[in-house]
Specification:
By secondary structure, the chain is an alpha+beta fold. It has a single domain, classed as Mannose-Binding Protein A, subunit A (Mannose-Binding Protein A, Chain A), CATH 3.10.100. Helices cover 22% and strands 13% of the residues. It contains 5 helices and 8 strands, in the order αβαβββαβαββαβ. The strands form 2 sheets. Strands 1, 2, 5, 6, 7 and 8 form a 6-stranded mixed β-sheet that branches. A two-stranded antiparallel ribbon has the order 3-4. The longest helix is centred in the first third of the chain and has 18 residues. It is globular. 44% of the residues are buried.
Amino acid sequence: MRRMLLGVAVLGLGLTGTTTTVNTQAQPPLGFFITSVGSGNGANLGGLAGADAHCQALAKAAGAGNRTWRAYLSATATSGQPAVNAKDRIGTGPWYNAKGVVVAQNVADLHSDNNKLGKENSLTEKGTVVNGRGDTPNTHDILTGSNLDGTLATGAPDTTCGNWTSVAGDGSALVGHHDRQGGGANPTSWNSAHPSKGCSQANLVATGGAGAFYCFAAK
């Protein structure tokens, strides 16, 4: 009897071994997200440094704080400081969203028609979808201050809300549409659709945003 039971145990082990499949492939590290919350003070992000710190804090909360994070924002030249292009701040890629989907392989790919940005893939650091055109509220406007190619957008009166320090009602910031829908000169652009109607939180909400911006892992 003991010998018979032992044989069944071995048979069961053999069957288990032939039917069990273990997937050990790791998901790529988070490298891109839209901020789940903005500064709460409109386009006053505390400048580029404040925006970067916000990206870093959100990434850390999402378990990706071991990487160096930069906000996808351009800035105008100031005394002793040259102009800044958003595309020059974000590293070389590739960049993956919170679901492990590669949204762009490199800077050139990011600014081409080949990128995978859009409502489905342009997620927050938590992996949640951001409201787009047709949703309530519509928060598809994302702060960038940039042209289609990721360089600083120039024009009157402003395109960066005082280099991301202003909440003035007569200021403005270039925004993109994360869902690639809407109005403006470039309605399907993720980074350069149209200017905002002002720089305060109320101004951004009225335009179709909430003060969110893109964050990329630069290293």
